[in-house]
Design a protein that fits this description.
The chain is of the alpha+beta class. It has three domains: about 160 residues, Immunoglobulin-like; about 200 residues, Neutral Protease, domain 2, CATH 1.10.390; about 90 residues, no CATH class. The chain contains 13 helices and 23 strands. Strand 17 and strand 18 form a beta hairpin. The longest helix has about 45 residues.
């Protein structure tokens, strides 16, 4: 009897233990910390050469007698599939949203059913001309979009060019990013824990400097890596084609512009389309992220035009240091309008992206006062919100007052005059609209003075201050100080005192040359007098 009780207790304990283990495994599977072994696997292999050309091989293996699955394949380039063992029964090509509820522009899903004697094996192959972007000594491999049916396991191997070495590698998935399973010189292995994923690998090439070609068209010079010459040539053609229209819009001409491709830092690889440095009060060369040669037609063109427009804005008299929001808003709006007029498909996606982002900001309230604090040296935490808000303000003003012709009028009104203040900017925007835009900008959260109400004096004082040579000191400084005091009084609705300040500014600016001569002459006379007094005192006997 005791033996039976002991056996019963043992069996009950074993049953409880088994149940707990089963529940634990189920819980871990739900939480994504463990998963049952699948009966099918997708094996990805990427072979990258010295120019970034990438051959992709995807092998699918299944141990079931009959089954079905799907895998992403390119939409706009050739690919092939072949059953190595077993037989494909049926297959079809469908849009990606039919299998994952997300549209991937460059990809479609290859759906297939199969049968085998217990081991089905299929291979899919395709190539990418720029699977890795390389400007020696740096290269970044960015895989095609990996996508396969979720009930399968996945693994990927990346074979980088000879003599290269891995610097950093990451898999980018919907639930986060994770490190590779193995890293060894120019070879990287990933276990794919999700079925929708990208692989990004930075590597150092065996060559220390790229081969550069200098391409010239008109005023434009492109210092291009030889392997990307054709893309550089396309951008030069676009610049030359659009130059006269941009010159007419901004009412200025450019002397010379240099352009070059670059590879951003690893963790900002996709977030930077391009940039133009602004240091020492001067605007620099146009830099374009070479990754976007892989984008939808029109995207890299919009990036290039955007950066070129910064040059036009700077030449037109608007400094990015003081009016960065307007710089970025105009560059976004005008580049998309041009690309749309040229029929580039990317214009629709870029406009849609900005409009969607702006609409989300508006849901939080039309308060874009953060734009006035946006400076090149103080980038906001959410810089994308600043770009979207800038685009919204510039595009909405355009829709209210005449689209591109509105800004054409604006640039003719400023006529190369330096505009480095939001109040003065709003004043000229109001002149171009033939009505004050300040109430609209205030509704969007801007803190402004409506200079349109005292336009004659403000305009004259502004021209007087900016036209005053810096050598006429301290009177230029005094005129600038009084001008700022005038704007402050206008903001406080003290128009009478503001006008007095403006009149004083005009008077000081008018007589600054004479006052400077008198001041310098007085200083020289005082110096001579003091020296004579010292000499006379030194000659007196003790």
């Amino acid at each position: 009897m005791k033996a039976i009780r002991s056996l019963y207790k043992t069996l009950r304990s074993l049953l409880i233990f088994t149940s707990m283990v089963s529940l634990t495994i189920s819980f871990l599977a739900v939480e994504g910390l463990a998963s049952p072994t699948a009966d099918s696997t997708y094996y990805y292999k990427f072979f990258v050469n010295e120019d970034g050309f990438t051959r992709t091989v995807v092998n699918y293996e299944s141990s079931v007698a009959r089954g079905s699955s799907w895998v992403f394949v390119p939409k706009f380039s050739n690919w092939s599939s072949v059953a190595l063992s077993g037989r494909i029964l049926q297959s079809e090509i469908v849009e990606t949203e039919s299998v994952v509820n997300v549209k991937y522009y460059f990809y479609q899903a290859f759906k297939f059913s199969f049968e085998s004697n217990g081991s089905f094996n299929m291979s899919v192959q395709f190539n990418m001309s720029a699977g890795a972007l390389i400007i020696e000594p740096r290269g970044i491999f960015f895989s095609p979009q990996i996508g396969f049916q979720a009930d399968s396991d996945g693994k990927a191997e990346v074979f980088l060019p000879n003599n290269s070495s891995v610097v950093e590698a990451v898999a980018i998935a919907q639930k986060g990013s994770y490190s590779p399973t193995k890293k060894d010189l120019n070879y990287v292995v990933f276990d794919l824990y999700e079925n929708l994923i990208r692989l990004q690998i930075e590597f150092k090439t065996g060559i220390n400097a790229p081969a550069i070609s200098t391409l010239k068209q008109g005023i434009f010079t492109f210092q291009a890596v030889k392997r990307y010459e054709s893309y550089a040539s396309d951008i030069l053609n676009l610049f030359n084609y659009g130059y006269n229209g941009l010159m007419d819009l901004f009412n200025v001409t450019l002397e010379s512009v240099e352009i070059r491709f670059f590879i951003p830092e690893f963790h900002t690889f996709l977030s930077i389309g391009g940039y133009v440095p602004f240091t020492g009060g001067k605007i620099g060369d146009i830099h374009i992220n070479v990754f976007f040669i892989r984008g939808v037609k029109g995207v890299i063109e919009i990036i290039a035009l955007h950066e070129l427009i910064h040059h036009f804005l700077y030449k037109a008299g608007l400094s990015p240091r003081d009016l960065l929001w307007f710089h970025e808003g105009i560059a976004q709006y005008v580049s998309i309008e041009i690309a749309d007029a040229l029929g580039y498909e990317g214009a629709l996606s870029e406009r849609g992206r900005l409009e969607e982002g702006a609409s989300q900001l508006i849901q939080l309230g039309e308060n874009f006062n953060f734009l006035q604090q946006w400076k090149p040296e103080t980038q906001p935490a959410d810089v994308s919100a600043s770009y979207m808000a800038s685009y919204y303000v510039v595009s909405r003003l355009a829709s209210m007052y005449g689209e591109l012709n509105y800004y054409k009028n604006f640039f003719r009104l400023i006529n190369g005059r330096q505009v480095n203040d939001n109040n003065v900017l709003a004043y000229h925007l109001s002149l171009a609209a033939n009505t004050s835009v300040v109430p609209t900008l205030k509704r969007w959260g801007f803190k402004l003075v409506d200079l349109h109400v005292s336009s004659t004096l403000v305009d004259e004082a502004e021209r007087a201050v900016h036209g005053l040579n810096p050598i006429f000191q301290p009177y230029k400084f005094l005129a600038e100080y009084l001008y700022k005091q005038a704007l402050t009084n206008l903001e406080n609705d003290n128009v009478e005192k503001a006008n007095q300040y403006l009149e004083a500014v005009i008077l000081i600016a008018k007589f600054a040359p004479i006052l400077t001569v008198i001041t310098i002459g007085g200083i020289l006379i005082a110096i001579i007098y003091i020296n004579e007094r010292r000499r006379a005192l030194s000659n007196q006997p003790f």
